[in-house]
Design goal:
With 197 residues, this protein is mostly helical. The chain contains six helices and no strands. It starts with a helix and ends with a helix. The mean pLDDT is 81.
């Protein structure tokens, strides 16, 4: 249904005003592109181009495994639903996966854009403020999908492959460590309160 709506929209915009809109759009985009190209060197004067393109590199490198893992997770999740739970194939799972991919891509693309702008303005501090969340969100999204994939494979086969077991144990160790630190901090605060009283 979404594909049909998308194709109908494309057909409408290409045939609007008997194609006059296409000509106008092409000429306008040509002038805008030439204008932007002319001012690119001026805009990036003094900026480190390697630093400017680093967020784009991270975006590309992280998107590829995220897309692969999401696709595999969709496949195994659908198999679990059909083979183990006796459900029919549900297209909502596909749209949910597409929505996830679009959402993370949209957010990280905004961070890429702002980090490039900040470097072009020669503000390395603001560049770091956008670059670190960019890396963080990608690692968070990939690890979440990786864990979900492991869970679905485990449900389907009866046991998880070792790499997923290792990943779960790593997260458990980090979780326990974090909880212990919080507990120690609370205990220290309580002891300080008792001493002050």
């Amino acid at each position: 249904m979404i594909i049909k709506v998308g194709l109908n929209f494309l057909l409408k915009i290409f045939t609007y005003k008997n194609g006059a809109s296409v000509t106008f759009s092409f000429i306008s985009s040509l002038f805008v592109s030439l204008g932007i190209g002319k001012y690119t060197d001026w805009f990036m004067h003094g900026a480190d181009k390697k630093i400017i393109y680093m967020p784009m590199f991270v975006e590309t490198v992280m998107f590829i495994p995220f897309l692969l893992i999401c696709t595999m997770d969709l496949r195994y999740g659908s198999k679990v639903a059909m083979e183990k739970k006796g459900e029919d194939f549900n297209w909502d799972r596909v749209w949910d996966t597409v929505s996830k991919i679009f959402a993370i891509l949209f957010i990280t693309s905004m961070l890429v854009f702002f980090s490039m702008i900040f470097e072009s303005l020669q503000s390395r501090y603001l560049w770091w403020i956008t670059f670190i969340p960019l890396c963080f969100l990608w690692v968070l999204a990939i690890s979440f999908e990786f864990g979900s994939l492991g869970r679905h494979i485990g449900e389907l086969r009866g046991n998880k492959p070792e790499i997923f077991v290792f990943f779960d144990k790593l997260l458990e160790v980090l979780q326990t460590s974090a909880l212990n630190r919080v507990k120690d901090t609370i205990d220290n605060v309580k002891q300080e309160d008792i001493k002050n009283k």
